[in-house]
Amino acid sequence: MPSMTVLVTGGAGFVGSHFVRAACESGRHVVILDDLSGLGLSDADSLLTLPLPSGATFVRGDIGDGALIRKLCKEHAVESVVHFAGKIQVGESVRRPELYFDVNFARSLRLLDALREAAVRDVVFSSTAAVYGVPQEVPISESAPTVPVNPYGCSKLAFEWALDSYARAHGLRFAALRYFNASGAHPDGTLAERHEPETHLLPLVIDAARGSRPPLMVFGHDYPTPDGTCVRDYVHVCDLATAHLRAIDKLAQGHSLGPLNLGTGHGYSVKEVLQAAQDVLGAPIPHVVGPKRDGDPPVLVADCRAAQRHLDWQPVRSELATLLEDAVRSRW
Ligand code: UDP
Question: Is residue 62, in this structure, part of any structural domain at all?
Answer without folding.
Answer: yes
